[in-house]
Design a protein that fits this description.
This protein has about 325 residues and is an alpha/beta fold. It is about 45% helix and about 10% strand. The strands form two sheets. The protein has a five-stranded parallel sheet, sandwiched between helices. The chain has a three-stranded antiparallel sheet with strand order 1-2-3, with no helix packed on it. Strand 7, helix 12 and strand 8 form a beta-alpha-beta unit. Helix 3 packs across helix 14 and helix 4 runs parallel beside helix 11.
Length: about 325
């Protein structure tokens, strides 16, 4: 009896391992864990910890320089002091969760732009306030050519704004789903979730298949644009960017990289509430932006643009699209 039990367990483990290996080889599903020491948990984010050496984000090793900017393992700065410099600022999408730095759009541009220094000064978990702090505190202005800042529709769910709106009446699918709430509040299940999503793409696949995280996160982010206080926050923050942009002589350019749900067949036909509000605010404050929704929607293989079952993080293919678009804008 014991022998049969162990044989069956062994067979199940072998099947699981074969399935895990197959998913890793034949799909762009990635584990979704972030090593300790990658994200500053102090509450004063500003930039990632400096001199990170080989810790993992979504299964890929990451490295940072002494400023906390993401770099390749054996990175080199083009040393000529008169070279123009381009900075990319944003959260995990711009940081490049799930891909190596050389395959992010900032990494591709660093390789292809020739005599220009390109820096990935993004921070996992960053938001509008923190991005502005990065611009103010971490970016050299002497040879500055451009600062590209990614605006994500979940930027209104930032750290300070959440604290200021605990009593908000905004309703969303995540809050209303009592089962998901109960699961999230369970300490043991939370630990299991974090452990397996950082180790197993099979777990990520099953979770994506049954819980549809892309749709839930999109609806949650979209719901923030119905909150008048958060729209006022957006106004105040973009006014600060406009003031800084004036000082920098119009060198800030926003990137609007959509969520995966924003490029499904239905949403490709129209702008959603978030897109309408954000574009109006950028025009109001005379801030330049480059939108990628039409480019993504028009791509014949748009199902390859994002990591599988991921609402915002780009695949290598997605990063290539962004990089190729920006090459045309930069030159």
């Amino acid at each position: 009896m014991k022998k049969i039990f162990f044989v069956n367990i062994s067979l199940l483990l072998i099947i699981f391992l074969l399935f895990e290996v197959s998913l890793r080889i034949f799909t762009n599903i990635t584990p979704q864990g972030v090593s300790k020491g990658i994200i500053d948990q102090s509450g004063n984010l500003t930039f990632n910890f400096p001199n990170i050496n080989g810790k993992k984000v979504f299964g890929k090793k990451v490295f940072t320089d002494n400023k906390g900017f993401r770099v390749e393992k054996n990175h080199e700065i083009k040393n000529k002091s008169d070279l123009k410099e381009i900075y990319f600022v944003g959260g995990s999408t711009t940081f490049g969760n799930g891909v190596l730095q050389k395959n992010t759009f900032s990494g591709i541009l660093k390789r292809d732009l020739g005599p220009i220094n390109v820096f990935n000064s993004s921070v996992i978990g960053s938001n509008l306030d923190n991005n502005l702090l990065i611009v103010q505190k971490k970016i050299e202005k002497t040879n500055l050519m451009s600062i590209f800042i990614n605006f994500s529709i979940d930027d209104l769910s930032g750290f300070e704004i959440i604290e200021n709106n605990k009593n908000s009446n905004v309703k969303n699918d995540i809050q209303n789903n009592s089962l998901i709430n109960k699961l999230k509040e369970n300490i043991f299940l939370n630990y299991i979730n974090k452990f397996f999503r950082s180790k197993s793409v099979t777990f990520v696949w099953l979770k994506g298949l049954f819980f549809k995280p892309e749709e839930r996160y999109y609806k949650y982010a979209l719901s923030q644009f119905n909150d008048e206080e958060k729209i006022l926050y957006l106004d105040r923050t973009l006014a600060k960017y406009a003031k800084k942009n004036s000082i920098l002589k119009d060198k800030i350019i926003f990137l609007i990289i959509p969520f995966s749900q924003q490029i499904n067949n239905e949403n490709c036909k129209k702008d959603d509430l978030a897109e309408k509000i954000v574009k109006n605010k950028f025009r109001k404050y005379k801030l330049k932006y480059i939108g990628f929704k039409k480019i993504f929607c028009g791509d014949l293989e748009k199902n390859k643009i994002f990591l599988k079952y991921d609402y915002s993080h780009l695949s290598i293919y997605g990063h290539e699209i962004v990089a190729n678009t920006l090459k045309q804008k930069i030159y």
